[in-house]
């Protein structure tokens, strides 16, 4: 037995995925590239949501990880030949993750407004570093003349120059990121991250390694933001310092608020809504920024859980059957058991570290 709400949990994503697969065969190339851009921004918003929605940490430097990955691709690309996808993508993600580890290890020693300001400061430092660096093109940025490709000998496996190939690669990456984030937030690690968000003192009192959990989430989030930055640079053909600025970080934060913080795919919906809204308003009025701001304010005030709240209004949850209630209780018990396992493991590590120390 299942409820109508649980049906919607699977039916709605399946229908959206089917529409996304069919889109390139029925829509003009312009709309395919537009949706590709929206999906990339959705990946960036979902990466930010891991630390904002599930970790309770409002970061204003995620655009820096996004832009750094783009610069890595630009600097690693030959001038007249396409870069090799198989090693430039891991390199860009690794550099973004390394920068996130350095910033996170320092910023996570602060809390609240101080954490926001420290991440903002790091983001601006990286913005001016690339803005004033001649090797990165300065304020003009750097161009990428050929999109990356994946070769096996003389056989081209993936050529991102082809819009259809590029779109399906981005779509596949998006599905993989959703699966990865869903696995993370449902794991004992995700429960520990949420416990630190809800009550840090209690989490510390129970022995959770709060700093270690938050730093790991911050690094994973930075790495996923790097994936988005790599494909954004490949699509646009250039990377500029503005890709690292706090304006983009704030815009992505708005996407998270519009889509909903306590949902893995909610920020993706927020990205689609915000980018689609911009496109419509630009074609309608010169004062589209003003209109966009008013609409965003209305959405945040009327839908505090994001636009996904509309789905629960259309498909209200019905009374849960006893079978499902017992299943949910079993899953909750299992999750608590897993979290306890993580706690015991962390304690054992601490004890072992103390003995070796």
From TrEMBL:
The keyword Transmembrane applies. One of its GO terms (cellular component) is plasma membrane. It comes from the Bacteria. It is found in: Cell membrane. GO terms for molecular function: branched-chain amino acid transmembrane transporter activity. The keyword Transmembrane applies. Residues 333-357 are annotated as: Disordered. Keywords: Cell membrane, Membrane, Transmembrane, Transmembrane helix. This is Branched-chain amino acid ABC transporter permease.
């Amino acid at each position: 037995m299942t409820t109508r709400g649980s049906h919607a949990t699977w039916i709605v994503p399946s229908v959206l995925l089917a529409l996304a697969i069919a889109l390139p065969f029925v829509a003009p190339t312009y709309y395919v590239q537009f949706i590709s851009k929206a999906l990339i921004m959705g990946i960036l918003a979902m990466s930010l949501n891991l630390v904002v929605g599930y970790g309770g940490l409002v970061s204003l430097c995620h655009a820096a990880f996004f832009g750094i990955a783009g610069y890595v691709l630009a600097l690693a690309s030959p001038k007249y030949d396409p870069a090799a996808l198989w090693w430039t993508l891991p390199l860009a993600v690794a550099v973004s993750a390394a920068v996130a580890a350095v910033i996170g290890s320092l910023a996570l020693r602060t809390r609240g407004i101080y954490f926001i300001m420290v991440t903002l400061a790091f983001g601006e430092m990286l913005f001016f570093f690339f803005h004033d660096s001649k090797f990165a093109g300065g304020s003009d940025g750097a161009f990428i003349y050929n999109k990356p490709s994946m070769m096996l000998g003389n056989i081209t496996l993936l050529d991102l120059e082809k819009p259809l190939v590029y779109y399906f690669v981005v779509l596949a990456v998006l599905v993989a990121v959703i699966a990865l984030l869903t696995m993370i937030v449902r794991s004992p690690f995700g429960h520990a991250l949420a416990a630190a968000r809800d009550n840090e003192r209690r989490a510390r009192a129970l022995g959770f390694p709060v700093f270690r959990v938050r730093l790991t989430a911050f690094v994973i989030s930075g790495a996923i933001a790097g994936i988005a930055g790599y494909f954004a640079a490949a699509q646009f053909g250039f990377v500029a310092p503005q890709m690292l600025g706090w304006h983009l970080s704030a815009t992505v934060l708005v996407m998270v608020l519009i889509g909903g913080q306590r949902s893995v795919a909610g920020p993706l919906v927020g990205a689609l809504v915000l980018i689609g809204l911009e496109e419509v308003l630009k074609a309608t009025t010169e004062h589209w920024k003003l209109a966009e701001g008013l609409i965003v304010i209305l959405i945040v005030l009327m839908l505090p859980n994001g636009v996904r709240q509309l789905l629960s209004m259309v498909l209200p949850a019905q009374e849960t059957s006893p079978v499902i209630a017992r299943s949910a209780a079993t899953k909750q018990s299992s999750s608590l058991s897993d979290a306890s396992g993580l706690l015991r493991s962390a304690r054992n590590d601490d004890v072992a570290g103390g003995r070796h120390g």
